[in-house]
Write a structure and sequence with these properties.
296 residues, alpha+beta, 18-stranded mixed beta sheet, 18 strands, 18% helix
């Protein structure tokens, strides 16, 4: 299986162009994404043919679960599709689990220097995020987690996000609290978690616990969710710079109610996955004393 390793702000992916998904893609994802026994990545991404768009993107997390969307991954997919001739235009239509999204390549001297993605309209209705509770929006609502109350704002971009504003993101123990919120029973499909520090009305600092992946250096949809939550709580402007551990994204919640995300997508290397198959990988993991299911 030929692949290209790519990253967007350190959020890294193994990207594969294919005609169809492999057998047991969830097991393949666990194998490929393993940072000791595999290539190592925050996700395994497949670029597939589409009958309704220029191409389809399917992404599987390191724990084998499938994500509806990933903002950093779609930028990587757009750049790779353009530079390898799969798509020969600067504005693409990409079919995802969150619907058809539209990346636009930003070129300089014929090179892709950034990708802007129309992420669509944020979903704010509780039942559609989804989150248990009465109808309406979830804005600065109390959530009890392990005996501690957090004030949460819920947003979806096809995948659920729980946004929490804190005085200092560096004081948050993501490894401890992240999985507790991800698996909180109020989120029936689990959730991504963003802790957000307001630097100014034009800048947010964010740390992310990603559903199915854990701590990552960046999350595109998470940055969009943080920006929307900032506006909903009266804490930030509609155009902000979002600083993540891996770098910066420009996020704009425009007058048309669409959110636009702009950031880099960088190819790292190409290679070939020589795995003998899902069953063999599971057996190898068992022999080495590791759980074959992985993830959080």
């Amino acid at each position: 299986m030929r692949f290209t390793k790519m990253q967007g702000l350190g959020n890294d992916f193994v990207v594969v162009k294919a005609e169809k998904l492999p057998e047991e893609p969830e097991t393949v994802a666990r194998a490929v994404c393993d940072r000791h026994f595999g290539v190592g990545a925050d996700g395994l991404v497949f670029i597939l043919p589409s009958t309704v768009a220029d191409l389809e993107m399917r992404i599987f997390n390191p724990d084998g679960s499938e994500a509806e969307m990933c903002g950093n991954a779609i930028r990587c997919v757009a750049r790779l599709a353009y530079e390898t001739g799969l798509v020969k235009k600067e504005v693409l239509r990409v079919q995802t689990g969150a619907g058809i999204l539209v990346p636009r390549l930003c070129l300089a001297g014929g090179r892709v220097v950034a990708v802007e993605v129309d992420m669509g309209e944020p979903v704010l209705e509780r039942s559609l995020i989804p989150m248990a509770g009465p109808p309406g929006r979830v804005i600065d609502e109390p959530l009890l987690v392990a005996g501690k109350e957090f004030r949460v704002t819920a947003v979806s971009f096809g995948n659920p996000h729980c946004v929490i504003f804190v005085p200092d993101v560096n004081q948050v123990n993501l490894q401890e609290i992240g999985p507790q919120i991800e698996h909180h029973p109020v989120f029936p499909r689990r959730t991504n978690v963003e802790f957000v520090q307001v630097i100014s009305r034009e800048e947010l600092r964010v740390r992310v616990w990603e559903r199915g992946a854990g701590v990552t250096l960046a999350c595109g949809t998470g940055a969009c969710a943080a920006a929307v939550a900032g506006v909903l709580n009266g804490l930030s402007a509609r155009r902000v710079r979002v600083t993540l551990p891996g770098g910066e994204l420009s996020i704009s919640w425009a007058d048309d109610n669409h959110v636009y995300m702009t950031g880099p997508a960088v190819p790292v290397f190409t290679g070939e996955w020589l795995d003998e198959g899902p069953a063999e990988w599971e057996a190898t993991r068992t022999m080495n004393g590791k759980s074959s299911k992985g993830g959080s």
